[in-house]
Amino acid sequence: MTVKTIAVPLIPGPAERSAITTGFLLARGFDGHVVGLHAPLRQDRAHEMMMSRAGIGLSGDRLRQLQAEQEHEADRAAETARDDFFTVARSMQAQTVDHPPAPAGLSASFKVLPSGGADALAAYCRVFDLVVVGQPRTDPDHLQRNTLRSILFTSGRPLLVAPEEPPGSVGEAVLIAWDGSPLSARAAAISRQHVRRAHKVGIVTAGHEHPEGPSAGDLAEYLAWHGIEADLIEVDPQRRRLLGEALLEAAAEYRADLLVMGAYAHSPFRESLTHGVTNHVLSHADLPVLMAH
Fold first, then answer.
1. Residues 144-174: pLDDT tens digits?
2. Structural domain includes residue 108
């Protein structure tokens, strides 16, 4: 199935504009439709105040005032997100289309979701071919990373993480991270529409970690049956501090503009303790990363 509909949740942060740009760059190759999604992700301050000790003595008028202020801020945030989204859409010469079918070429629309937080946003993303979010490199309140994880774990859709700086291209040189596991197989499967369009495709491995699973050579043969020729690249993480660092170095040497990988083979908590591959790539990648869980 081709990548026709792409969701871009507009999460405030340094990579928000890059996520929008990346979504349109990718959609352009498929004559796709990009939807900017805005949802209130932060907690309801009025409700939070009511439930706290500080809110015990507040009058109903004050609580209603807090609610009105919050609604005004939410409206202003939605309007800012809409402006940012359509500024990029116009620069990409995308047509504004609210309902299908869309005319040939790149198209765009914007949708404001009701409150419900990251889980509601992730649930809505289930009706898209792909979801694009910005990299959570600078994320002091963990809003971006928590939303990313919610989408990755519960949307059931592939997730593309855009770097903080907008890329010049997406999917012309694709590098697939492979270890023979079911997770890497899932990632390789969701990348097939992208590798079909790529000028070159590589498979990077750090050794055969799953003896019962297929090797990188077996994956290359699978891709060959689909008419895709792949280069085999092996890295040695023993010479480096982290496997994630080795993958990113390999991507840079290959001049890849899309890295494909399985995400969170272990829990996010365990990853945080062990400096796992997913967390390292999320924090340091300077190219788009297509992830599957």
1. 888 999 999 999 999 999 999 999 999 999 9
2. yes
Q: Which two tokens stand for residue 52?
A: 């706290």
> What is the domain extent for residue 110?
5-42+75-162
CA atoms within 13 A on the CB side of 192: 14
pTM (2 decimals)?
A: 0.86
- What is the CATH classification number for the domain harbouring 250? 3.40.50.620
Specify the 3-state DSSP secondary structure of 266.
coil
Same domain, 90 and 137: yes
Q: For residues 278 and 285, is the Cβ–Cβ distance under 8 A?
A: no
- Distance, in Å, from the CA atom of 171 to the CA atom of 245, rounded to the nearest integer, reads 21
Residue 108 to residues 6, 93, 127, 165: CA-CA distances in angstroms?
9, 10, 16, 22
Q: Residue 158: CB partners within 8 Å, gap ≥ 6?
A: 129, 130, 131, 190, 290, 291, 292
Stretch 129-138: mean pLDDT = 91
